[in-house]
Design a protein that fits this description.
It is built from 15 helices and 22 strands. With 518 residues, it is α+β, with helices and mostly antiparallel strands. The two termini are 41 Å apart. Strand 20 and strand 21 form a beta hairpin. It binds biliverdine IX alpha. The site of biliverdine IX alpha has 30 residues, from helix 2, strand 7, strand 8, strand 10 and helix 8. Keywords: ATP-binding, Chromophore, Kinase, Nucleotide-binding, Phosphoprotein, Photoreceptor protein, Receptor, Sensory transduction, Transferase, Two-component regulatory system. It comes from Pontibacter aquaedesilientis.
């Protein structure tokens, strides 16, 4: 495997933190507003209606106020009500329970898909019209998911999983565009898989700044398996009464599907030229690895079964990606371990540890994918490959001595931390310093050359937040057209596994030094 397999999306060189506190502090959960494609009911422990979304009349033909303080049992199918009670008996706190609920309010029975959220002080019921169980058969779904899974299993790399995942979700849902979006360490993200209609703009390979999906929005993916906005063109619906009488606060809508959307994001969707959007998390080892983002030019509201199937697909995709990443790590570890074993043997059989590191079947440069290396030991500097001039290495060693501890120090943008090194960026934009004796200025130094990288942003990230002159109103950027940034003074980043290999090497060399000395 080449190193690039693991590093091409590691956010090389993007030093600027685009994770905006400003966007991150927009409250999403205490907004007291819902989207109108469903209704929200807040019930007390006796299942009386204590708060209701004002659009009740649109869905049930009776003004919202009339429902307040009434028992839910008064309006719904009796058998279903009994079933609901039984389900509530078995519930776990925080669990969402989906089922069908029929209301008889306007002379006829109207079927809703209901989702119950249990909170300590109350129950939330979200109701959406049109439980359309006839539209798909279970067999149809099962076949489609089975087909998608078998295609995913045949893939060879993270990139091909992303491509197949986008294709399969698009085929399954008919969204106009489906994107697989991977976060980097700084929460910027890159589109690594795409399937789209021809007239949709091409986002493949584009990077988007962290502020586009701020922290609190990212965290909600741990509470809700998807975020669905069937249309951005809607009038938000208020809850009646405004304050939840059971808590004397606004009702927390964190994990409600119907939660109304932050204005800035609705504008963002308009700027992207889409009307509907749905996103699902890719969670690996309890971390948000990425999202599956689906766009549609016109309004679109996948039904409950479709959403459930998408949830299932997204977890299958997550586990395929997790397995592939794990495989990549193991294969890199194996390569490093085998080089390491050879190097250790060489080290022990050589006259001096420097000889052992520099000469033989393998060497330090190969082990850590360096473009140059130096050893500062016993008052002398020895080098291999392309390195800064000896005098400069000496100065670098003094800097390290003043600033570093006994721990391994590594950076893939040395010139940002130590501006004097700009002169030799071609040899050492990346540095790994393995201390042997920091006080004496004894180090093994690994260098990586500058790797100029072009980052393709979806719109200028420095213009991601547009503040109006009043300093209060703000907008998202209005162009997602390619904006290229050339990142200078950086090398290919160091992988965790390489740093671990450097640590093992440090111990081995220390052992060798002790034996050389005594
Ligand atoms: C929400 N931003 C989101 C969401 C996505 C994105 C996926 C979740 C809601 C959804 O699924 O539509 C961003 N969508 C993307 C990106 C791609 C994509 C990057 O398809 C790339 C392919 N947004 C801004 C600015 C702010 C901001 C400047 O551009 C803040 C000032 C905030 N984005 C913002 C907020 C939400 C959001 C607050 C949450 C909206 C909500 O859930 O109500």
């Amino acid at each position: 495997m080449t190193m690039n397999n693991l590093t091409n999306n590691n956010g090389i060189g993007v030093d600027k933190n685009y994770d905006s506190d400003f966007c991150g502090s927009i409250p999403l959960h205490l907004i007291n507003l819902t989207q109108p494609h469903g209704m929200l009911l807040v019930l007390d422990s006796e299942l009386r209606i204590r708060q209701i979304s004002e659009n009740a009349a649109d869905h049930l033909g009776i003004p919202a106020e009339e429902f307040l303080e009434k028992p839910l049992a008064e309006y719904v199918n009796e058998a279903q009500y009994e079933e609901l009670l039984a389900k509530l008996e078995l519930r776990n706190q925080g669990e969402k329970i989906p089922f069908t609920l029929s209301f008889h309010t306007s002379g006829e029975e109207k079927q809703f898909t209901a989702l119950i959220h249990t909170e300590p002080a109350y129950l939330l019921i979200e109701l959406e019209e049109g439980a359309n169980y006839q539209s798909h058969t279970i067999t149809e779904f099962f076949q489609q998911i089975k087909y998608a899974t078998s295609r995913l299993k045949q893939t060879e790399s993270v990139e091909s999983i992303a491509r197949v995942a986008a294709e399969e979700i698009k085929r399954f849902t008919d969204f106009d565009k489906v994107l697989i979006y991977q976060f980097d360490k700084q929460w910027n993200g890159t589109v690594i898989g795409q399937a789209k209609e021809d007239d949709m703009s091409d986002f493949m390979g584009l990077r988007f700044p962290a502020s586009d999906i701020p922290k609190q929005a990212r965290e909600l993916y741990f509470k809700s398996p998807y975020r669905l906005i069937p249309t951005r063109d809607y009038t938000p619906v208020r809850l009646l009464p405004v304050i939840n009488p059971l808590t004397q606060r606004f009702t927390d809508l964190s994990d409600c599907n119907l939660r109304s959307v932050a204005g800035v994001h609705l504008e963002y969707m308009a700027n992207m030229g889409i009307m509907a959007s749905m996103s699902l998390p890719i969670i690996i080892e309890n971390k948000l690895w990425g999202i599956i983002s689906c766009h549609h030019k016109t309004a679109k509201n996948p039904d409950f079964e479709e959403r459930n199937a998408m949830e299932l697909l997204s977890s299958i995709i997550s586990s395929q990606l997790a397995a592939k990443e794990r495989e990549n790590v193991i294969s890199l570890q194996l390569t490093l371990r085998s080089k390491h074993a050879t190097l250790l043997e060489q080290l022990y059989n050589s006259n001096s540890f420097v000889d052992g590191l520099f000469h033989g079947e393998t060497n330090l440069q190969e082990l850590l994918s360096l473009t140059g290396a130096a050893v500062s030991y016993d008052g002398e500097i020895k080098t291999m490959g392309n390195t800064p001039p000896i005098q400069k290495v000496k100065e670098l060693v003094s800097w390290l001595r003043r600033n570093s501890t006994e721990q391994i120090f590594y950076t893939h943008h040395l010139p940002h931390l130590y501006p004097n090194s700009k002169d030799y960026k071609n040899e050492a934009s990346g540095l790994i310093a393995i201390p042997l004796n920091t006080e004496q200025g004894e180090f093994i130094l690994g260098f990586r050359e500058e790797t100029l990288q072009t980052v393709n942003w979806g719109g200028n990230p420095d213009q991601a937040i547009q503040l109006e002159p009043d300093g209060k109103k703000y907008h998202p950027r209005n162009s997602f057209a390619l904006y290229q940034e050339t990142v200078k003074f950086t090398s290919i980043p160091w992988l965790e596994e390489e740093v671990a290999a450097a640590e093992t090497l440090q111990n081995a060399v220390m052992g060798k030094i002790i034996r050389e000395k005594f």
